[in-house]
Amino acid sequence: MTHAEEVARLRTNLLQSAGATVRMLREAALRGADVPDPCTKYVEKVRQASYRITDQDVEDVLAASGSEDAVFEMTLAAAVGAGTDRLEAG
User: Fold this and answer.
1) How far apart are CA 1 and CA 30, in angstroms?
2) Nearest-angstrom CA–CA distance, 16 and 75
3) Whole-Å CA distances, 67 to 7, 50, 73, 83
4) C-alpha dihedral sign at 9, 18, 83, 89
5) Distance (Å, rounded) from C-alpha 85 to C-alpha 90?
6) Domain span including residue 36
7) Which of 61, 72, 78, 79: disulfide with 43, CB 3.0–4.6 Å?
8) pTM for this one?
9) Looking at the 3D structure of the chain, how many domains does it have?
10) Are 11 and 30 in contact (CB under 8 A)?
11) pLDDT of 65
């Protein structure tokens, strides 16, 4: 399997699998599109400057979503999206 195929498979699995969040939300985080608050700032931080994420950022998303799985899915979608954007940009 080529690297491009692996990346495509990762994106497909991330979006097509059942999860704690709805697919539209994961898709938006993956693309860097608008997501509802308090996820907006969190997704933006994951995509642009993940080293700046604080415990409070995670707690805010957890309080809104009520699920650690939802926080994980949003983090993963945003990180994969940012990584593939950078990969495609060269």
Assistant:
1) 23
2) 16
3) 27, 20, 10, 24
4) positive
5) 9
6) 3-89
7) 78
8) 0.90
9) 1
10) yes
11) 87
Closest by CA position to 61, among listed 49, 48, 76, 83: 76
Q: How many CB atoms lie within 10 A of CB 83?
A: 13
- What would the two tokens of residue 13 be? 């699995």
pLDDT at 1 over 90: no
pLDDT tens per residue, range 36-88: 887 899 999 999 999 999 999 999 999 998 899 999 999 999 999 999 999 88
3-state secondary structure of 13: helix
Q: Which stretch of DSSP H or E encloses residue 51?
A: none
3-state helix, strand, coil split of the chain in percent (to 5) is 80, 0, 20
Question: Tokens standing for 56?
Answer: 């409070």
Backbone angles phi, psi at 20, to 5 degrees: -75, -20
